[in-house]
């Protein structure tokens, strides 16, 4: 019975010692903060460094354009709900936010041409023409309009029909057909929306017009 007191003291000392050892292991030792406890409560996923975001260039292009080229992005309207967008050199020329788009053909002319509403006939040589459809590009187009778009480099202007989706970049005085054109027919079998095909998005780099004589 007389040994009960010393035994309690030894048990207490052992208990305190074990507690100190466990705490040292978990806390990582003196001066090291709480790295090991943090490791216990940290998931493997959160310890992985997040991948850096892909850099975007002018008009959201994934790569920069070469020197003497213009970056552009043209997006057609989606059905009759979301308006089209036309961006050139990181400047949004037309969009719903700018409140300068409407149903039909949305056309931006780039060559310091002041009167945008006279459209195609009076264009200066080398003027870039950006076109994005919205809802219906074809109903009000006549044969002369289709011919003029073809002369700007379009392959599809003559075939445009009711509620087709169309994006196009051409130029006054081009000798060949433009490589910057997309066209999707309105078809109930393939339409993405009820009554309309999918919206189109086109981006790229256009060579600047040479000013050499």
TrEMBL record:
GO cellular component: extracellular region
Compartments (UniProt record): Secreted
Alphabetized UniProt keyword annotations: Disulfide bond, Lectin, Membrane, Secreted, Signal, Transmembrane, Transmembrane helix
Transmembrane segments: 7-29
Domain ILEI/PANDER: 111-173
InterPro entries associated with the record: FAM3 (IPR039220), ILEI/PANDER_dom (IPR039477), ILEI_FAM3C (IPR039475)
Domain of life: Eukaryota
Keyword Oxidoreductase tagged: no
Presence of the UniProt keyword Ribonucleoprotein in the record: no
Molecular function terms, GO-annotated: carbohydrate binding
Family statement drawn from the similarity comment of this UniProt entry: Belongs to the FAM3 family.
Classification via PANTHER family: UNCHARACTERIZED FAM3
Protein name as annotated: ILEI/PANDER domain-containing protein
């Amino acid at each position: 019975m007389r040994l009960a007191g010393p035994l309690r003291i030894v048990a207490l000392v052992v208990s305190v010692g074990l507690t100190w050892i466990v705490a040292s292991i978990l806390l990582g030792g003196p001066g090291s903060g709480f790295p090991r406890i943090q490791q216990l409560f940290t998931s493997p996923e959160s310890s992985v460094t997040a991948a850096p975001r892909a850099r975007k260039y002018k008009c959201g292009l994934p790569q920069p354009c070469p020197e003497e080229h213009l970056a552009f992005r043209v997006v057609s309207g989606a059905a009759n709900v979301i308006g089209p967008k036309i961006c050139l050199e990181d400047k949004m020329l037309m969009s719903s936010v700018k409140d300068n788009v409407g149903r039909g053909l949305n056309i931006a002319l780039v060559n310091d041409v002041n009167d945008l509403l006279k459209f195609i006939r009076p264009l200066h040589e080398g003027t870039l023409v950006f076109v994005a459809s919205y809802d219906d590009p074809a109903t009000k187009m006549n044969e002369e309009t289709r011919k003029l778009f073809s002369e700007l480099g379009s392959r599809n202007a003559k075939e445009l029909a009711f509620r087709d989706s169309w994006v196009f970049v051409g130029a006054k005085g081009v000798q060949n057909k433009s490589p910057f054109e997309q066209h999707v027919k309105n078809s109930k079998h393939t339409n993405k929306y009820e009554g309309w095909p999918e919206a189109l998005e086109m981006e790229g780099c256009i060579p600047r017009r040479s000013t050499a004589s």
